[in-house]
Each structure stands twice: as structure tokens, then as C-alpha cells.
Amino acid sequence: MSRDATAPRGLLRRHRDFRLLWCGETAGKFGASVTGVAMPLIAVSELHASTFEIGLLSAASWAPWLVMGLPAGVWVDRLRRRPVMLAAAGVSLALFAAVPIAGWAGRLSVGLLLAVALLTGTAAVFFQTAYTAYLPDLLSPADQPEGNAKLHGSASAAQIAGLGSGGLIAQLAGAANGMFANAATFLVSLLCLGRIRHRETPPRPAAERDLRREVGEGLRLLAGDPWMRTFTLFGAASNLALMGYQSIQVAFLVREVGLAPGTVGGLIAAAGSGGVLGAFAARRVAARIGTARAMILFELGLPSLALLIPLTGTGAGVLCYAVGGFSVAAGVVAGNVIKSGFQQRYCPPELLGRIAASAAVLSYGTIPLGALLAGALGTALGLRPALWITTAGVPLAALVLLLSPIGRTRDLPTAPRSPASPTLAPSPATA
User: Fold this and answer.
1) From the CB of residue 199, how many other CB atoms can be counted at a distance below 10 Å?
2) Among residues 338, 283, 274, which one has the least CA distance to residue 303?
3) For residue 202, what is the DSSP state?
4) Nearest 10 degrees: CA dihedral of 39, 44, 45, 47?
5) How many CB atoms lie within 10 A of CB 371?
6) Closest CA to 128 of 365, 371, 369, 353
7) Phi and psi torsions of 409, nearest 5°
8) 409 forms bridges with which residues in the sheet?
């Protein structure tokens, strides 16, 4: 495979395989965003689910990380990553297409939605783990920052379009029929991934590997490394709060504020447009003030405006949600761009799958807890008080970064670690 790191043209123009990966991932993110609006709307408007059931539905999508995350990381390191992504996309295509078909047959229920959420969540565990480990094999280190920025930026743009489209589709064709849009995007993803020509670096033979030992190895590397440990703890705290308010935001906007489904989708899309700005600004801000300082700015400074979200009301009051959600999206996406670049260059390639999965289990594992907590708080206290509690947790989570070595440095480490020596990379420049 040709890796031209010095070509003046952009990565999308000169790297065919990355372009296909980018198209497939962007299509998948669009479909996932449609589902993020359509599934709660199915539960709210067609099945009249309770606030707790809505929270449970969000939790089901992420619960597989707690069960499958660690072994998935080891299995992905044993296999070629692209076939894993193809299989996961195919399973998701079939499951999401089953929802509107069940609706036509009169078989749609909260239980069915929970089953689909659990199974597609399991497929997402394997897809995301394989995707994280695949990108550094596809791109040279010099191309990875641009690749991360483009993928996160296009994902944010796709999410915006998907959120807006999800509400509109639900209003025009019915929430259940909106799931066909998601199924179609996984078909696009399958076609794009299937056309990639890049030959991956072969994994070590399975006979040389031991599941329990390799799971433990990934966890030990996380626990013993202050940089990876900090990012993992921050991810756990941040995701608890983020999923907390996001799992009940549709119910809040429909039942508490009184907005129509189409308006809900448009408002959530407007807030999500901050992600495009965050992806665009991440590398530029990091180059100017340092990657560690940029993480603090994006993950603590901007998300503080999340506290505007519970103030959302009718009329001009919807601007509170738009501004608060925009700021959170910008900060989170920009932080993810910086963190992804750090992780891909810092971790040994042959360990990246299990390290990424171990970190994801610990950080994504709080997502279902956040959804369940928000559902319980919404039931006990009401939707608006529940939003006050969960949105306050978004900036508070970033204190993990501020009080860690990240808060005392200008730049994160950039040199990869030696696979044979699980020690810190060379020390970064201090502030």
C-alpha cells in the first residue's frame, strides 16, 4: 500500500482506502443519529413508555461494553479488523430493518426495542474496537492527526443531519419507519468497507496467545500508565453525565417543553453542530496552546455551558438548549480528536485493540449506569431536576483531567511506547 505522507493534497483526495473508510463511517454515524432520535420517539409516541423505560432503552445500547468489551479487544487483536467490521455492520443492518417490519406486523414492543438495542450494541462493541485498531494500520503516523480530525468532523456533521432527519422522518413517516434509514446506512457502510484494498498487518497466531493473560495485560497497562489511566477515569465520569442528560432529553423536550418531534430533531441537530466546529478547531487550538492545555479548555471550559440546558423553555427559551448543547458537542468532539491522536501514537500497535477495549469497558461501562440513573431521577424528581443534576456532572467530570498530570503540562506525549517496555513515553514539555 502506498502511504504518501508528503503529498500536498488532502488525505481524502489522495488516499482511496481512507476515503472509503470515511464514507462508510460517516454513513454509519448518520444512521446511528437517526436511531438516537427514532428509538426514544418510538418508545414515547407509539409505545407510551415510562421515563425509566426510556432510560433503560438507552442503557441497553451500551450495556454490552460491560460484558463483551474486554474479550472483544483480545479477539480483535487476534483477527483481521476489516472482516470484524463487515460482520458487525451486517448484523446491525438486519436488526434495525427488523424494527419497522415488526411494527407492520403489530409485534412492536418495548421488549423488542430492548433486544434490538442490546444486540446492535454488541455489534457496535466489535465494530468500534476493530475500527480503533484498524485506522493506525491504514494510515501512516503523519496522516493520523488529519485522519482523526476528518473522521470526527464528518461524524459530527452526519450526526447533525441524522438528528434533524430522524425527527422529520418520525413526524412524516412514523418513528418506526425511520429505522429503515439507519438500516440503509449500514448497507452503504458494508459496500464501502468491502471495497477497501488495504492488506492489514497479520495478527500473531492464536496458538501463541492466551485470552485471560491478554485481557489482564491490557488492564495492567491502563492501570500502570498515568496518561491512559487519567483518560479512562475521565471518560467514565464524563460518559456517566453525558448519557444521563442525553437519555432523557427527548422525553424532556417533548413532555416538559412541549415540542413536536420534528422540532426536537432540528433542535438536537442544531446543538450537535458544535461537533463540526470542535473537530475543525481541535488541531489548530492544540498547535497554538498545546495538546494538554487544549484538552482542559475543550473538556472543562466549553462544557460548563451545559448548565443552560435545564433552563430550556418555549419560544426563545429553546436557545438555552441550543447554546448549551452546542458548547458540549464542540468540547467533547474536539477532546476526542486530541485523545484519539494521542492514543494511536502512544500505544504499541499490537496492543492497541485490547488497550482500546479495556479503556472502553471502563469508560463506556458508565454509560448504561448514567441512562439508568437519569431514568430513575426523572421518575422520582421530574425531568427538569434530573437534567440539572446530570448536566452539572459534565464539567465536574473534567476535574479528573485538571487534577492529573494533564493539568500540569503543555503537551501530551507524542512518541509511541516500546511494546517490550510498558513504561511512560518520554516526558512531555511542562508548562
Assistant:
1) 10
2) 274
3) P
4) 90
5) 28
6) 353
7) -130, 165
8) 430
pLDDT in tens, 279-304: 788 888 988 998 889 999 998 888 88
As a whole number of angstroms, the distance between CA 106 and CA 5 comes to 55
CA angle 266-96-24, nearest 5°?
75
CA angle 121, 235, 140 (to 5 degrees): 80
Q: What is the dihedral of CA 83, 97, 52, 269, to 10 degrees?
A: 80
pLDDT 10s digits, 185-202:
889 988 988 888 877 766
Asked if residue 215 lies in contact with residue 68, where contact means CB atoms within 8 angstroms, the answer is no
pTM given for the model:
0.64
CA-to-CA distance for 92 and 119, rounded, in angstroms?
8
Q: How are the residues of the chain apportioned to helix, strand and coil, as percentages rounded to the nearest 5? A: 80, 0, 20
Least confidently predicted of 330-334, 405-409, 415-419: 415-419
CA torsion angle 101 107 113 115 (round to 10): -100
C-beta atoms surrounding 209 within 10 Å? 13
Q: What angle do CA 126, 425, 5 make, to 5 degrees?
A: 70
Cβ(96)–Cβ(120) below 8 Å: yes
C-alpha cell of residue 117: 438495542
Strands (E), 175-219: none
For residue 337, how far is the Cα from the chain centroid?
11
Q: Which residue has the cell 427559551?
A: 317
Give dist(CA 256, CA 384) in Å, integer. 8
Exposure string over 376-403, b if 16+ CB within 10 A, otherwise e: ebbbeeebbebbbbbbbbbbebbebbee
CB 144 within 8 A of CB 136: yes
Residue pair 267/393 in contact by the 8 Å Cβ criterion = no
- Closest by CA to 217, choosing from 341, 73, 412, 360, is 73
Query: Could you tell me if 267 and 318 are in contact, meaning their C-beta atoms sit under 8 angstroms apart?
Result: yes
